[in-house]
What we know:
Elements lengths: L1 H11 L3 E3 L10 H11 L3 H19 L5 E2 L4 H4 L2 H17 L3 E8 L3 H11 L2 E4 L2 E4 L5 E4 L5 H14 L2 E7 L6 H4 L10 H13 L3 E2 L2 E2 L1 E5 L4 H10 L5 E3 L23 E5 L1 H4 L15 H17 L3
Parallel strand pairs: 1-2, 1-12, 2-3, 3-6, 6-7, 7-10, 10-11, 11-12
Antiparallel strand pairs: 4-5, 8-9
Amino acid sequence: MIQKLITNIKKTNAPIVVGLDPMLSYIPKWVLNNCYGEFGLNTKGAAEAVWRYNKAIIDATYDLIPAVKPQIAMYEQFGIDGLIAYKKTVDYCHEKGLMVIGDVKRGDIGSTSAAYATAHLGAVEIGGEKYAGFDEDFATVNPYLGTDGIKPFVDVCQEFDKGIFVLVKTSNPSSGEFQDQVLSSTGKPLYEYVGQMVEKWGEPTMEGDYTNVGAVVGATYPEMGKVLREIMPHTYILVPGYGAQGGTGADLVPFFNKDGLGAIVNSSRGIIAAYKKEEYAKFGEKNFADASRQAALDMIQDITQYL
Length: 307
């Protein structure tokens, strides 16, 4: 699966992923009002607005980008109606030729972890037939429970040719409370050890120069990204924290290899809510998707100029 993602990145010359993380406050009022009028002032109306908002942004950007990353929590808040919107978004992105990284941050042990992996990457068998659940191409995974929590995902990835991105060093300010703690056994921070484990977990899944087990490393920590790039030479890095969280194109160079591959950078509200930013205000609420397209073009230019 990682080779499919790399192919898409090369085709678009855009090592970016658009985070489809819609909040109701991002959605233009005219979209919300239309959906509430048709479906009611309820979770069904809100979920329909999310779907229409997503679809417009996908239609405006799919030819520019290799992948999207919907954050499932933004859909789960609307219950079943939200999950239906999530699934419609995943399926539509596939129709448009986009790779889908399900930002689900799952992680448990044994049969529970296997069930999460089946839900998002595999298929459940019913009456002798297999049915895919959400059917993303990749999923984000929390490694806190160790190998017991990761192996079921790797097994499903192997069976269905899918991939995962394991949280290693996240972009949030308090990540250091755990991730930066120095281990007495190694004298190095925990995130470095997790990076070593990610490289190890990926060994059975090699595809060319990279494995199907990737890592999440925040753009807000470029020096740590440089260290982790060396620790994980065969690991593709998903980089959140660009734009709204402070990361810039210049900060991202350490995450990439010399060939310009090895990382894919996420931007969520910086693209999907671009029309709210001063530099894109000229597009207005009515043309919010056009603002997202321009923001995607600007992000691509900002990153690729340094690679």
